[in-house]
User: Fold this.
Amino acid sequence: MSTVLIVDDEQFFLDSVVSGLSAMLPDITFIQANHGEQALEKLTQQPVDVLVTDLKMPVMDGFQLLSRLMQWETTPAVIVMTAFGTADIERDVRNLGAIDYIEKPIDLPTLTNSIRRALERRAGGYLRGINLAGFLQLLVLEQKSCRLVIRQGQQRGELCFEQGNLVHAVLDDLQGEAAAHAIVTWVSPEIALHPPVKNVPQTIHTSLDQLLLDAHQMLDEQRRDTWKALDLEISPDASSHAQSVPTKETYDMGNIKESLMAIMDIEGCIGAALADWKSGMCLGSIGGTSSYNLEVAAASNTEVVRAKMKVVAHLNLKETIEDIFITLDTQYHIIWFVKNAPNLFFYVAIRKGPGNLALARYKLSQIESNLTV
Assistant:
């Protein structure tokens, strides 16, 4: 039986919402918390599939709760109750796979459907609780003023918000947009919320949405340039290959997304990605955890593919590689080549316990045959 935790500081509201949801979703267990600290206690005491939380609460508010959850390896799906939600915002952030927004006053059927969607996606294994981009957009949505101290590994950066506007960023010797571009692409950050800084200098004049878009475009270009340079070292015809490096626009991205979602239905699947081993570009990814980034893993495994392709070429083998298996202590990693696009491969991680390699290979062959690129 799935468990949903509802967090709000108004007890009457909590009781009425839980009562209504219990009637509409009788197969789900609902538990309550009055603030973020109490919610964390309950989350450590029992597994929770979906977290529905308000943002403005005493003791520990929703922002602090979500920032703490971002440090966890596994988290529940997150639905935020806000007074500023809109259909467009809800659609955009759901596409990020991060959070769902429900506008207050709560419409019970809408919340019920949101919980159903979250449980369905979580059952598929590919819904993350919240990511950095979603969290930052939530600060904008709620017009929050605060200072964020963000760490990833040995790096430490700061982002300052004033009434929902990102006004200043600093990372080592970088300030302004250059610092923000670097920070917003971190994949497993630790976040601490602090009160806003008085008289903070305004070094950023671009909207957060534009900053996120620019930062990820620059990251994609850096990866593409890196892998292109590596490929030129082993390509037999470097000049012709340099002119044919594909872009994401070359491919049918809708079909790729459907294929990745189908892979997540394989028993024990942790995550999957589709990558181009010639350009090093990751065309799409799904699943993974905060500490296991599928996009990075797929890009890194292009080196494995390149090395094997180089061996095949040196041995003058007139053969094609169908797949590569890597066995770890608790996982199987499968590199599955796409027959109608030899430069593409699916990278799939499967847990050993529930996973079945024979069944996984069979399903991958079906999915691959339906992939249009």
User: Anything to note?
Assistant: The radius of gyration is 23 Å.
